[in-house]
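User: Structure tokens for both sequences below?

Assistant:
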Amino acid sequence: MTRTGFHQRLPATLDSVAELLDALEAYAEEADLDPAAAARLNLVAEEIAANVAMHAEGATYFELSVMPRDGALDISIQDDGPEYDPLARDDADTDSDVEEREIGGLGVHLVRKLTQGVRYERQAGLNRLSCSLMVAD
């Protein structure tokens, strides 16, 4: 796995989420990421970026950074939307029947399950969600 990082800033739109995923796919190939790790990276990035694009009313952009370190990828996504901590929500109900569950929350649930050390912070008018994704070197 290469030690090169990834950084991209895009408008906060669903079209940009698709563009981000294309760029991440190219990055994963160039970085020689294991296919399973690349798929997890895409899923985590898609869930977080799509949340911004669909729910952060007034956000003009999201910015994703990926930095490799020993056995992991440190992922950070920030946006300029209104303050919102997705980690403050109750855990998604994955035990009830689908018909009985509240809508929403599964994206954050997936991010929590696929990564380690998920944290949110609000600084200088920006939301930032950070986590680490374990990968094989």
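Moving on to the next sequence.
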Amino acid sequence: MDWKKSFQLASVYVGTIVGAGFATGKEIVEFFSQYGFMGLMGIIISGLCFIGFGVKIMILSIRLHAKSFHQLNVHIFGSYATPIINVIMCVMLIGVTSVMLSGAGSVFQEHLQLPKVTGILITIFLALIVLIVGTRGLVFVNTLVVPILICFSLLLAYLSFQLPDFGKNVLEGTEFQWRAVINSFAYAAFNISLTTAVIVPAAVEIGDERTVKMGGVLGGLALTIVLIASHLTLVQLPLLTSYQIPMAVMMNELAHYLHFLFIIVIYGEIFTSVIGNIYGLERFVKKKLSIHSLFIGIGILSIAFFISQIDYGTLLSVLYPLFGYISLIFLLLLFVR
């Protein structure tokens, strides 16, 4: 077993899932923190899914010698259903890109006191430049931003632990809620289905099942720890569902001197998520149509721009759970396979 490759694979797994909704905290509030203590139990369920199904996908990919997630989809859904699944995944990616753009606008609006549309247009402009120039710099940005984001999450959890009502806030909401349980599976399904484009080829490239298994376990554990840390911080925030970027609000409250740096990190995570989605969609469209990458990018971002005019919190709270419930089919069929 190659420990170095296991850690690299774990980093890729974590980096792919720790997207903008995760960075802002809004996604964690929507799926977990609004349910209080039951949300914490939901995080543990999601964490077990990240470990179990993440490992299952990677090992299955090695055994199938899958070069892309398309081959994995053919194995799971069959050759007739796969084209429909691919279209659904494209719709999900456009929806997530729209949420990311809306989130970028909210960062500018809520924390830089600039119009939301300014943040969206700047993000689109930068995304098109990267589409023309290339993505080498983005790999560096991701490897820099994700560890910093994780460190911030752990720091905020530590500072929250020192608050006088910490224990009381964590233990609120102990009554059983089915929606909290379903949301935990939906959250895992949504994120796992969108990461297959990255972890399938990464696992096949490594080729060793023991190395890949350890990478999946380490990645899943890291995600669980960061989710718990973020949740323990967010439940300390009164009226937590009313904020667009709740993690930035907590950073401003607990460590004001790091607030602006944290905003930059959040925006960096949003931007890398937008680019990742655009490239995934661009490759899919290019297989079907012979159009220049720049025009494909403009087309995708134009659609996302109009959708992103909807309030960030509203957009995320509608689209993410919807995509999560759709993705549950993927998780169920994966389990059967």
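User: Anything stand out in the second?

Assistant: The chain has a mean pLDDT of 83.
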